Amino acid sequence: MVKKEVYILSGFLGSGKTTLLKHVLQALKEENKKPAVLMNELGSVSIDSDAVEADTSMRELLDGCICCTISDKLEAQLQDLLVNEQFDVLIIETTGAAHPVEVVDSILSPLFADRFEFKGIITVVDGRQWKERSQFSPSVLHLMREQIRHAQYIIANKVDLLTEMEQGTFIYELQQINNRAKVYLTNYAKVSMKDIFSEAAEIKIEGYEKASIGRHLSLQAVVYTFKGEVDGEEFEEWVRKQPETIYRMKGYIPLKGKKYPAMFQYSYGMPLFMQADMKYKTNFVIIGEELSKSDILQSLQAIDHY
């Protein structure tokens, strides 16, 4: 089964995400790829849905943020898209208040994680907004930095509002926060999406061999499907050995001697087991930074007895 590629459009309010969305959709159609869009708004009314043409499958999540108050609705919308729509690439435009790690965590539900391939976060940063960021509260500044830090691609937007010296400072400060992302200086979020798509494909083809020589994705998701049974003590030992750069783990673990898989969740270093009451897909999702996909998959295969 061919997995659906997933890109997340991130960035603070008013940075230019919806303008970028239009460019992304146009570029996908030029490559004969059928896109679908999931649009998240904090309010009860969609403001930007007219940016998506009628021939593109679209779902909306209103009245809350993807990563907290409406994560259950997100799962239902994704299931609906998978069952009822034909598409190759899913573009998720988040609210400006969304934290990237939380969004990836919400998207990759163990129920259908094996149907999606997370390709990266494209973060849009408004140059003038960044220059005048001292006006924002500490919590907003932290969120803006997190959106930049976890991006694979940074769209440094509205640079026509900055002097040449300010543009240089803008790029320098972005790279100080995230030196692994590719930075594009733009106006009206105009960027070569073919460049981004080809780079994402290159990472997929060459896998984590390229990452092992210094090109780690900023935020990665690894999905493993258990085929056999897992010894509980072996699994707990496996969890203890994992690096601190793993932020989330979740999935259904087929423990030996148990009729149904156990739901496992790991967040901020805290593991939690809950016994399920029916047979779920035994998908296991790992989200973090600077991960070696091949090492993780090999270590999971070693404890998967089948």
TrEMBL record:
CDD domains: CobW-like
Span of the signal peptide: none
Domain CobW C-terminal: residue ranges: 219-304
InterPro entries: CobW-likC_sf, CobW-like_C, CobW/HypB/UreG_nucleotide-bd, P-loop_NTPase, Zinc-reg_GTPase_activator
Keywords: Chaperone, Hydrolase, Nucleotide-binding
Cited SMART domains: CobW_C
Catalysed reaction, written as an equation: GTP + H2O = GDP + phosphate + H(+)
Pfam families: cobW, CobW_C
Origin superkingdom: Bacteria
Membership in a protein family: Belongs to the SIMIBI class G3E GTPase family. ZNG1 subfamily.
PANTHER family named in the record: COBW DOMAIN-CONTAINING PROTEIN, COBW-RELATED
Name recorded for this polypeptide: CobW family GTP-binding protein
Species whose genome carries this gene: Rossellomorea oryzaecorticis
